[in-house]
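Blinded run. Sample ID left blank on purpose so nobody reads anything into the name before looking at the predicted structure. Input follows.
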Amino acid sequence: MKNQDTMMQYFEWYLPNDTKHWERLAENSDHLKELGINYVWLPPAYKGAGGKEDVGYGVYDLYDLGEFDQKGSIPTKYGTKEEYIKAIQVLKAKNIKVIVDIVLNHKMGADETEEVLAIQENLDDRNINVSETKPIKAWTKYTFPGRGDTYSNFKWNWTHFHGVDWDDSTGTASIYKFYGKHWDENVDKEKGNFDYLMGADIDLNNYDVIAELTNWGKWYLSVTNADGLRLDAVKHIRSEFFPEWLENVEEDLPRDLFVVGEYWTNNIGTMKDYLEKSKACMNLFDVPLHYNFVKAATSDGTFDMRTIFDGTLVQTNPEKAVTFVDNHDTQPGQALESWIPDWFKPIAYSLILLRKNGLPCVFYGDYYGIPEKERAGQKEVLDQLLKARKLYSYGEQQDYFENADLIGFVRKGDFEHENSGLAVVMTNRLGGSICMQMGKDFAGKEFYDCLGNVKENVTIDEDGNGNFSCHDGSVSVWIIE
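Blinded prediction complete.
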């Protein structure tokens, strides 16, 4: 990961189910390159339980990348295997690294049921049993009749899972732990034990399961030639699993993988603990920073902007932080909905795109919009911020975080990038100005607000200082005229 690397999450939850997403991605690759995007995070590409209606997190068959007639369609929501591989090849030809989304926590959409002995668990505390052992009918047999034995002859049954959330014999939704199985210990402690999330919970202690997932990982990386992995729901998977699995999957790879995990917590201590227990084998999305943005945007101006990075991963361990504003889980209508209001988005994106630390990730829904929820994108603003990152955001960083409402920072540029250097001023309340030092090399230079919010230029004085301003509830990004 280099200093100016930038990621885009190239999907949102409500993309049309037209199987054309991979084609659109390939067609848009030149634009992404022009923006300075050099990592693209793609959605889960394998067949989900909902076929082409499935976003991809309801995993059915990891080997079906839109190749087999299963779950009512050959293509996935995003297209066919051939289109997927072509899109990846197009991106990589433009030196854009491809991050693929993988879900190893659960499976859904089984082909057959089995009678299994199970114990019903308390929904809010998974350490408490609420029934004696009893037989249930569980959807746990995965035979993949549309694919057969192509690529793998492994067939899943109840012994490969910890439990399920449905008893088909009684039509009862609950959480059922299979007799003789135990929820893994080294997982998040929410709900007492958060091993179980959804569907049929995969037993990642089972030797045959580990061997199959290792074989699949090697096959998938060979087929796709992907540069990295986005690991879904890692808080629900024992912390020892991924260091071992990644080591085995990567052993024959001719390239190093970039790996980022989704550990959804607002507690920086929990994130630090997970990084330690997982041997820092991955980066993590900076969820606490997202929630700081939420607080700053929804506090009616009472949030202290000086604390915007307090308790965040980018502050405590910047080399492991992937910063973001919103994503497919926080967007309107989703389980973790915590949408950043539109007025604050340019402020938040300035804080992740124009500073030194962390790998910033731009959300597709923020850039292109979310028509399903009547949310307009902020393409024009993000184009300017991405351009500022690509051309001007270099050199020493100096913060001016003295005022609870109005904060700023400068990047002083470097010799390698002509006219580089910028100044940023923002507020979640009342506008104003901050005198900030760019350096004597900038004396006499004129700066303008590339976002167009403040119309008057700023001239740097002989000591290298400039009086940079922004309007109420706004951000201004100042670059050389």
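Unblinding after everyone has recorded impressions. The radius of gyration is 24 Å.
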